[in-house]
Amino acid sequence: MPLQLRRLPPHTAVTIDAPARLHLGFLDPNASLGRAFGSLGLVIDTQGTRLEARHAEREQIGGAVSDADRVRIAHCLARLQAAYGPAPVAIDVTHMPRAHTGLGSGTQLALAVGTAFVRLLGHPASSAELAALLGRGARSGIGILGFDAGGLLLDGGPAGMHQRGVPPLLARQPFPDEWRVLLVSDHAREGLHGAEERRALASLAPFPQHLAAHLCHLVLMRILPGAAERDFAPFAQGLTELQQIIGEYFASAQGGVFASPDVERVLRAVAAERAVGLGQTSWGPTGFAIVASASDAEHALSTAREAARALPHIECTVVTGRNSGAAIRCAGAHARRSDAA
Fold it and tell me: Is Transmembrane among the key words of this record (predicted)?
C-alpha cells in the first residue's frame, strides 16, 4: 500500500549530484566489543553520480549507464512506486563511477534516484528512510551520512548484526582544505560484492577484541583529533595503522592487504618517499594515499604515475575532500530553485 504522507510542492525536474566516498575501515567487524562494524569514511569531491529525473508518460532510464546499472535503477523505482504510488519518471544519468571499486556507487545511485523521485512527487523523505526502503546501509552508514553532510565521518554501526536501520553518526570533522587524496585505481579488477562478499565475510575468523579496542583508540585519539587540529602526522599514522590491521584481517578473503597487488605496489612507492595516510577503500580495488598539501600531492602523483608506467590498467588521480553533501536542484512549473542536502 502506498505510504500516506504530508505532501510538499512537487517539481517537474530534479537534478542530483551525489558525492563519492572512501570507506576508511571498520572498527569492529563482528561485534567483539558488543556492537558490529562501526565505520570511518571520507566524502570526496569527484567520482560522484549525477542524474536528472523528470515526469514522463512512461518509465525511461538512459544516459551513461551500463545494463547492470539500468537494472539497479529499475529495481529502485519499483520499490519507490510500491511505497509512494505509481508515477512514471525518466532518469537520465550524466556520469557515475564504475561499480564495485570502493567509491560507494551503489548507495550514491540509490539515494540519488530515491531523492529525485520523492522530490518530483512532493513527498518528504529523509535519506535514512530512503536507504532503508532501497536496501542500503546494512553494515556501513558512511555513504548515507555523506550524502547528507560530507566531511570525515564516523558511524556507530548497526544496532545488531542483522538489524536494519542506518548506523548513527557519532562524529563529523571537516576535512582540512589543504590536504589532498591520491587515488590509485585498477580498472582490471572489481571489489567483492553481492553473494561473494557475504561468503567472504562469513569465512573470516572472529576479530580479536583487543584489536577492535585498539582501532577505536586510533580513531578517537589520533585520526579524528588529527583532522580537527589539522595535525597531519597523527592522522596519517593512525589511519595507516588502522588500514594495515583491517587489511590483514580481510587478506584471506581478498588476496592480500590490498585487493590489487599493482595498486599496492604503486602506493608503497609513494609511501617510501613521503608521509601519507595509506590504505584501500572498502574491498577495493581503489587504494588511496592522503597527503598534507597540494605540493605533496603533485609529487605523489608523479611518483605514482612513474611506478604505474608499465601498468596501463592503473589510473592515478588527485582529489580533495568534500565537506558538503549532495547538491539537489529542483525545477518547478513556474520557477527554478536550488537546495543543498
Answer: no
